[in-house]
Write a structure and sequence with these properties.
Its EC number is 2.3.1.274. The protein has an eleven-stranded mixed beta sheet, with helices on both faces. By secondary structure, it is α/β, with parallel strands linked by helices.
């Protein structure tokens, strides 16, 4: 295992250091070859680092910055006023080769904008895409892109997403010829928007891609495709719908108080033991649908690794984002994508 350094935007997300620092410490405990650069307000960070063991503290470097970039007045304003912010300084550490990857739970659009400017897309890539693994009912995984970085996508951009996604799936799942599908409102060739139909025609011409056609939203978790391609608008809605559904189901099974008021008391008496039985018997199968295990969407198509954590991520979820960043660096994902695109 290679030694590496990750730059973390400690202030990003809804909870900031309260989540990001404990997750960072847990990552250091689990990965002895990992060093971490923490970017944030040292006055807020310091209490969370006060009593940690020396063997962990010596692998952490603190970088004070009082500013946190926010996207409350538009993207262009946020980018212009990002200098000195925890997010920007973390990305600059990657640009300057002081770190090999960046992890942030900050605003997606700002993270994408700064990463494109400071790190640059790979040669030939029009737009980097936000990609993440999603679970399937057969116990395996698929990947899906784009998940919100690009709202409007041309047919050519969707084709590039398919190419990058296939390379990512090959390395993530050790596949030789991953199945690629386009998310659409039907499986018939004439269904959907023009850019999706045009993308299908372009992807079909790429003989190195195993294109299997359109996939509908109700089959996203069925393992029908290894790579699911869509624009960021549809992808973000689909992903958050899946995550929200999973969390609500877990809540209904686990928490008596989470059940809706329309469930009558008699039905509650039946559901509570049934829910506990299902959780106990199928704990392993159900746990794979826990959204925390898939936190950490990557900006695919950049010259370096940037991982976007959910803003609402808890400690376990942020830890998964850190692990994802470390895996991509050690797997040399950016260079493998570049090499794969050059072959195509």
């Amino acid at each position: 295992m290679n030694r590496l350094t990750l730059a973390l935007d400690v202030m990003g997300g809804d909870f900031g250091p309260r989540i990001t620092i404990p997750a960072s410490l847990q990552a250091l405990e689990q990965d002895p070859m990992l060093d971490i650069m923490l970017f944030g307000d040292s006055r807020i960070m310091s209490p969370y680092l006060a009593n940690i063991p020396h063997h962990l503290r010596q692998r952490i470097s603190l970088h004070h910055c009082e500013r946190v970039v926010k996207n409350q007045q538009g993207l262009s304003h946020a980018l212009r006023h990002s200098k000195g912010s925890s997010m920007r300084l973390a990305i600059e550490a990657v640009r300057d080769k002081r770190a090999q990857a960046c992890v942030s739970g900050g605003d997606t659009a700002v993270l994408m904008g700064l990463a494109k400017v400071l790190l640059q897309p790979l040669a030939g890539i029009q737009r980097p895409a936000l990609v993440s693994n999603i679970p399937t009912i057969d116990g395996k995984q698929s990947i899906m892109l784009d998940l919100g970085a690009n709202i409007d996508c041309s047919a050519e951009t969707l084709m590039q997403f398919a190419q990058m996604g296939a390379i990512f799936a090959e390395n993530s799942f050790n596949l030789v010829y991953p199945r690629v599908a386009l998310l659409n409102i039907g499986i018939e060739e004439l269904k959907g928007l023009k850019n999706i139909r045009d993308a299908a025609a372009l992807i079909q011409q790429q003989t190195q891609l195993n294109y299997i056609g359109y996939i509908e939203g109700n089959y996203l978790l069925n393992g029908h495709a290894d790579v699911i391609v869509c624009d960021g608008f549809a992808g973000n809605i689909a992903l958050k719908t899946l995550e929200g559904t999973a969390k609500n189901i877990f809540g209904l099974l686990k928490n008596r108080n989470a059940r809706p008021s329309w469930i009558k008391s008699g039905l509650k008496k039946l559901l509570v033991p049934c829910g506990k039985y299902l959780l106990k018997k199928y704990a392993g199968q159900l746990s794979q649908f826990n959204p925390d295990k898939y936190n950490g969407a990557s900006l695919l198509g950049l010259t370096a690794v940037v991982v976007k954590s959910h803003g609402s991520a808890n400690q376990a979820a942020f830890l998964y984002a850190i692990r994802q960043a470390a895996w991509q660096v050690r797997s040399d994902i950016p260079n493998k994508i570049l090499a794969g695109l050059e072959k195509k």
